[in-house]
Amino acid sequence: MVFEQGEDHVVVVADGAGGIRGGGDASDAFIAAVTSALTSGGFDITDPTIWNKLLTDVDHELAKTMAGKTTAVIAVVGSGGIVGVSAGDSQAWLVGETGADEFTADQTKKRLGSGRASPVSFFRPGLQGTLIVATDGLFKYATTGKIAETVRGREPGEAAEALRGLVALPSGKYQDDVGIVVLAGRKRFRE
């Protein structure tokens, strides 16, 4: 999901834990919390400590109500660079001409709703390349090199479609949920 806030873009990806009751509800609760925060305004969306607190609050609320578990990634792309926060195994990468920078490499795998999530913040000075924010259904089933090769030189919509194709089974189904947002400069596409 992508929210536009003035000149900034707020990219949000959540993936409810499969096989655990309430995963979809947990993802919905996280998205609702982000939506509420963005529409209420009154805070600096480029401050990762605010997003970190939001993820921590959602984690505790979901754990208290036993409403399920979800991964979470928020990446704010603006003139000041890219700031964000994550928990779980969904990821954010910046693919450049020669490599891929995994913003979420230091995150813990504890999901929101566990009561033990430990959100990790990230910052990069600019969008020099293609931003990919996606669920583990992409990153678990495709190599870094193949993902990077797939997005280079493609428009965001074409890149997102090609990334989905990387992890599709011959039947057209997927081994896991696959949610992808691709952002390059002012262009974006979500799958």
Explain what the structure shows.
It contains 5 helices and 10 strands, in the order ββααββββββαααββ. The chain is an alpha+beta fold and 191 residues long. It has a single domain, classed as Phosphatase 2c, domain 1, CATH 3.60.40. The chain has a 5-stranded antiparallel β-sheet with strand order 1-2-3-4-7, covered by helices on one side. The longest helix has 18 residues. It starts with a strand and ends with a strand. The C terminus is likely disordered.
Secondary structure layout plus pairing:
Layout: E1 2-5, E2 8-16, H1 23-40, H2 48-65, E3 70-78, E4 81-87, E5 91-95, E6 100-102, E7 120-124, E8 130-134, H3 136-139, H4 144-151, H5 156-167, E9 180-184, E10 187-190
Antiparallel strand pairs: 1-2, 2-3, 3-4, 4-7, 5-6, 5-8, 8-9, 9-10
Helix pairs in contact: 1-2, 4-5
Briefly summarize what is shown.
The chain is α+β, with helices and mostly antiparallel strands and 191 residues long.
Q: What is the residue-mean pLDDT, rounded to a whole number?
A: 89
CATH homologous superfamily name? Answer: PPM-type phosphatase domain
End-to-end distance: 9 Å
Task: Give me the CATH architecture, please.
Answer: 4-Layer Sandwich
Strand order of the largest sheet: 1-2-3-4-7
The residue ranges in which pLDDT falls below 50 over 5 or more consecutive positions are 186-191
Q: Which strand-content bin applies to the residues? A: 25-35%
Number of strands: 10
Shape: globular
